[in-house]
């Protein structure tokens, strides 16, 4: 009995020690989790939308579609250090229970063909010194102004919609200088290289041109095509003219993009964006966005089809070397009605116009007609009604009257069997009556 008692006491003490160790480990894990969660913030949005889309074309039967879709984005950020922040957004979209075809888009989270999620943005901001920030990753190149205005939100993307509207990975340097507490200027340089790496070839870069261009070709594509942008972003708040004034200039270009051994081209866009919010404190916001585009072609495709060779470039008459210039403009107003009983709803109207030679990209369109890519004229009128602090219902009408076909600046002239930049003349009208319910959380 004397020998058993010490063993019992030792066993009890051991159990108490093990329990204490286990409790300590749980508390350490909890503290680590609390420390991690304290740096992580998240929010998001869900847009459920219904469009009644109509296309009327001379001599053709009208096309009518009823489209129900949703777009969901989950935003998050983390600041592990005072000068280091990670930002991200996970996005998916789909057409409700779609049994039809799918949409191919460079915006992976906005294909509207599945519930597969994709990182629409995921980038690092590193504040090197006061005023200077370096960024790397998938940059905020979507939902640029004026997209935030009709959603009644603060500015969501850094760059005007007419310049960037597709997810792009790259590097950026931003220097911001505050003239005063109400006036600032930011300058940005952005580099988003277009890579040509054959991953199946162990990322060796040994990617050849399409065999249809030159059969048996062993010529290599450039591993990266420089795509760069430069930007000035001015902001003034609290003036007698308006609560917030933003003026942006952005230039964007890539050079020597080789589509084949014999064909390469350059592309450049210069954009100006102006936004004046809450003019004279009456709830009126006005904005304008204008771009000029330039496409420079050198050489042309050489497709040696037996008995019917195609040799041509991109130009107004199938020229092998040509420069094509275009322009496009967005203008709009947004008025917040001073009716507190209705939670201050808003009315908005905007127009879009683009000429025959404009080159527009929008891989993140939320409407069925890709309103901002049309070569022609369009209008958009809407009423936005807040339902509560998180939900907002927008009802609108979008109309476009394209004058020329849209898309990339390459078509085949069947008369001369050459490639050229001559968008086809079109004669149709697109209309969409829509209702969009947006929930922010």
Explain what you see:
By secondary structure, the chain is mainly β. The chain has one domain (42-440): Porin. The protein has helices at 4-39, 147-150; strands at 40-57, 63-81, 84-95, 113-129, 132-138, 169-178, 183-191, 194-195, 224-225, 227-237, 242-260, 263-279, 284-299, 301-303, 310-312, 322-336, 346-354, 375-386, 391-404, 411-413, 418-420, 428-440. The strands form 4 sheets. A 16-stranded antiparallel β-barrel has the order 1-2-3-4-5-6-7-10-11-12-13-16-17-18-19-22. Strands 8-9 form a two-stranded antiparallel sheet. The longest helix has 36 residues, at 4-39. The termini are far apart.
- Reading off the top of the CATH hierarchy, the class is best stated as Mainly Beta
Per DSSP E runs of 2 or more residues, the count of β-strands stands at 22
**Shape-level CATH architecture:** Beta Barrel
**Poorly predicted ranges (pLDDT <50, ≥5 residues)?**
205-219, 307-318
In short:
The chain contains two helices and 22 strands. By secondary structure, the chain is mainly β. Residues 205-219 and 307-318 have low confidence and may be disordered.
Fill in the keyword field for this structure.
single chain; 441 residues; mainly beta; Porin; 16-stranded antiparallel β-barrel; two-stranded antiparallel ribbon; 2 helices; globular
Topology (elements, then pairings):
Blueprint lengths: L3 H36 E18 L5 E19 L2 E12 L17 E17 L2 E7 L8 H4 L18 E10 L4 E9 L2 E2 L28 E2 L1 E11 L4 E19 L2 E17 L4 E16 L1 E3 L6 E3 L9 E15 L9 E9 L20 E12 L4 E14 L6 E3 L4 E3 L7 E13 L1
